[in-house]
Amino acid sequence: MPTKPTIVTDPLTNRGTAFTEEERRRLGLIGRFPSAVETLDQQATRTYAQLTAQPTNLDKYVFLDQLHNRNEVLYYRVLADHLAELLPIVYDPTVGEAIKKWSRDYRRSRAVYLSVDRIEDVRPSLEGLGLGPDDVDLLVVSDAEEILGIGDWGVNGTDISVGKLAVYTAAAGIHPERAIAVNLDCGTDNEALLNDPAYLGNRHARVRGRRYDELIDEYLSVAAELFPHALLHFEDFGPSNARRILLANREKYRIFNDDMQGTGAIVIAAVVSGMRVTGQSFADQRLLVYGAGTAGTGMADQIHAGMVRDGLSPDEARSRIWLIDRAGLVTDDMEGLPDYQQAYARPASEVADWTREHGRIGLLETVRRVHPTILIGTSTDHGAFTREVIEEMSSGVERPIVLPLSNPTERIEAMPADVIAWSGGKALVATGIPVEPFEYEGITFTIGQGNNALLYPGLGLGVIVSGASRVTDGMLLAAAQAVANQVDPTSPGSSLLPPVENLRASSATVAVAVARQAEADGVATASHDNLIQAVQDAMWQPVYPEVEV
Prior knowledge:
This protein is 42% helix and 10% strand. By secondary structure, the protein is α/β, with parallel strands linked by helices. A 7-stranded mixed sheet has the order 8-7-6-9-10-11-14, sandwiched between helices. The two termini are 24 Å apart.
């Protein structure tokens, strides 16, 4: 079989049937394609028809993955044209199905693999890419310990990093040639994988402790040295590592953890919209988080930062935050509290006379005692926000903000229609799942979905355009406010969050706000006479460039 020219085998340069007759002759491609010369529009139309003919979402994922490996411009054109529809295909939830079968269905690698067994290979692995210090804007890394609620999937989790980069490019125009997906193979505690002959990762239990930390330190050090302008995005790390890695390194490196900071910021956006309805500030809030893992605690961190920004001291802000996990209300007399919960543990003496069930202080008792203004659910405890809980909350708060964020539907704490009915139409609600509009007492309620894709692509673009040396709390809050400002939540039944239909324009808006805040926070290293134009100019477009020989 004759070898194909590199311009055809490289997905960044291949354009298939869009090569003109002159280009085919000049590049030695005569006879390589059918006679017709198509435009990108024509290719995109045919490709979308082929995609929609696929029988299942997983089949659609595989089809798009193969297109991605064949023609990146066409892939991103189709993805950008149908982003709201295809987001659940290229990322959550379909990517979770693909990850489970990744080793068995292995097709092509689009990532860099760094093993905890060979930390000395981190440098040559990244150097071997042949990219210079000005060639990379973004790296997305995952150790795949906590994948999208499905747990530890070892090297199979590679497609989390690949999928995240795809959304960055489709939604915010991050150039695909300037982005790197990275998998940290630290082993896995998933016995099914360890016993699967087809598994492609390290066949041992997940490594923790000093050796793990050495890998993280080496990765951060080498990546920051080789690609000094790049944002280092961390994704789907386990709860014991995500927060401590972020806290230990955020002042030193340009690091961002979407599970903690991105999720927290999108919740902030919903809260900001809610406060526009109530006329309150962060300093007026009482927050109760039900499900105090890294995501829930990350949300508490963001709201705590907002409280401090609005005038409370750090201690005053902490005193207005309560966390509940599997053991009940988090208190300072509990043994073995994770580091991320310790800052918010309530004094045991404060709750000594609170009612306990099975030795724990539960959700309803905490709501009765605290009357929170904001109730967040990240517990995956389906139905936990009962009628009694919502009625009790509503009795003490005029317009409670209720955010049942667990997904999928069978894990949500309460369905929005129930929350609205139980609160007498007073609750301000956003969710982690898509919800169809519904009516209550003659008002149509539109429920916003807390999708991180509304925020992190624009945040990343803003960091790149501003050259921010680090990601500050102010930049996260600016991103959240930029998302919130895209909706008017004040009319009855209105959504607290924008839809994902126009993510590219939304990402540009977020990027401008983030870049401006980076300047205000003194971390920007680039300046622009026209920031709006600078953001537009930085956004890669999925169009075929001029062919160079």
